[in-house]
Amino acid sequence: MIIDVNPEFGYELVCSMPYAYYLHEHDCLEKVITCKGMSPFYYFCDDVEEKYTHRSIDNNTNGVQNLPNTWIHHNAVAHFGDKELTQEEWIQANGWLDYSQWQPPLLHKQYYDETLDLPEKYIVVSNVYNLEHGKSPTQYFDINSLYHIFNMLTEKGYSIIYKRPRNTEFANDPNELQGMDITATVEGIGRITDFQLSQYYDNVILFDDLINKIGGSYNEAQLKIFARANGFIARGGGSSILCSYFKKPVIIYVCTSGDIRPGYFDSNSYFQKISDNNVHAIVDPLDDIKARGYRDYSEVYSKIEEIL
């Protein structure tokens, strides 16, 4: 069997990689054709061709249409048949895929390396700031929230690795082609970016600095860093799915997409299956943000106090 895909990153993590690993475990995987930089995610395959330089959001042509799960948000037909769902079934189906040919690869074991010079105890804060389906960013951590998160974690004795891609590190989809700066005016300092905020902390490390230190490809170094983390704080989307692969607590701030649907993070969901039930989602719907005029991170802070 040949897997040939270039979908959004989240789709590849959820629909492609677990199917490829399932095929590998059953001696049925011949080759994987994927995007630039993705070979480390398919470590179990001897023949990986990094063919694509960009990702496609068209699931009728990007290879997802040939996988057992063709949509990331649910596979209701696999569980309830081709019928109109009741309200209870609709909620139950959200985030629930067909797991009959679905086995997530063991990234947390493959890339764990205790010899790396990393902090003894650290949390990865994974942020993203770019256009969201052609619209201005909504689902992200702003500088004020990062300030609170950094303070809370350092007071708990953690170091922090702060990751925010500049959208030059990997194959992008159309939603990632325009990266922007997160800025805010800080009293007594002036206007700073989120990257500059990290410089005011002794134990906040920029992810890119560690990538250069560890060496190797961006994704291989990333997987090694994630494998040693004690936990993750992430905004919704593909980056939060990747964090979930490492079986440690993941606090996810979600505002948009199908992830805000009722039941999406219940025990049947792919998020919980990938993470061994370590995902804690804070849902702050875009409509609520627009109505109140600001993003509400208070539940994120409460969850940090509770589980980290």
Tally of individual helices: 12
Got a strand count?
11
The CATH topology label of the largest domain is: Rossmann fold
Beta-strand proportion: 15-25%
Contiguous uncertain segments of 5+ residues: none
What does the overall shape look like?
A: globular
Which structural category fits the helices and strands? Answer: alpha/beta
| Main sheet characteristics | 6 strands, parallel
Straight-line distance between termini: 42 Å
Record the strand order, biggest sheet: 8-5-4-9-10-11
How is this fold's topology laid out?
Layout: E1 2-4, H1 9-25, E2 31-35, E3 48-52, H2 76-80, H3 87-93, H4 107-110, E4 122-126, H5 143-155, E5 159-163, E6 183-186, E7 190-193, H6 194-198, E8 204-206, H7 207-214, H8 218-227, E9 231-235, H9 238-244, E10 250-254, H10 270-275, E11 279-283, H11 286-292, H12 298-307
Parallel strand pairs: 1-2, 2-3, 4-5, 4-9, 5-8, 9-10, 10-11
Antiparallel strand pairs: 6-7
Describe this structure in words.
- The protein has 308 residues and is α/β, with parallel strands linked by helices.
- The chain has two domains: 2-105, no CATH class; 110-307, Rossmann fold.
- 32% of the residues lie in helices and 16% in strands.
- It contains twelve helices and eleven strands.
- Strands 8-5-4-9-10-11 form a six-stranded parallel β-sheet, with helices on both faces.
- The termini are far apart.
Structural key phrases:
globular, single chain, 16% strand, Rossmann fold, 6-stranded parallel sheet, 32% helix, 3-stranded parallel sheet, 308 residues, 12 helices, alpha/beta
